[in-house]
Amino acid sequence: MSRSQKNDNFIDKTFTVLADIVLKILPTSKEEKEAFCYYRDGMSAQSEGEYAEALENYYEALSLEEDPFDRSYILYNIGLIYASNGEHIKALEYYHKSLELNAKLPQALNNIAVIYHYQGIKASQSNKPDICKYMFDKAANYWQQAIYLAPNNYIEAQNWLKTTGREKSGNK
């Protein structure tokens, strides 16, 4: 039974029904429709914390999906799973792949910054000031890019940039 048939949540059921209707009326190829079904099932599994199942669905969607924009979101969601599992190097890899296909994905830029910021904190705790500064500077760079694309988002990052003196003069 596909995940879309197992949804118990009213909102999930509503989304699934609407997505199925849209899929039927849109002039898309069989592969594109199949890719979307896998993507949708991946999102559902991910929201329920079923990360292994979500990854299986995302990888299958990735093998079918040809549109670079859609592929960027699949790659981004794969990155989310790896980040939530503490696999930061893999997460960074998938966030960067998503940005190669869609440079206007501020959430990927933000998540890259969060990982570098975390690494900066760990370096600070390990008394490695050079690595700490390097990681914080990388985080600042990615947050500045995310804020440029979405100026009303990432308020905590904007405050961090201000309080650490890393804010670009154009963002003030």
Automatic annotation (TrEMBL):
InterPro entries, alphabetized: PSI_Ycf3_assembly, TPR-like_helical_dom_sf, TPR_rpt
Pfam families in the cross-refs: TPR_1, TPR_8
Homology family: Belongs to the Ycf3 family.
Record protein name field: Photosystem I assembly protein Ycf3
Membrane topology: Peripheral membrane protein
Lineage: Eukaryota, Rhodophyta, Florideophyceae, Nemaliophycidae, Batrachospermales
TPR repeat segments: 35-68, 35-68, 72-105, 72-105, 120-153
Example of a GO cellular component annotation carried by this entry: thylakoid membrane
Predominant place of localization: membrane
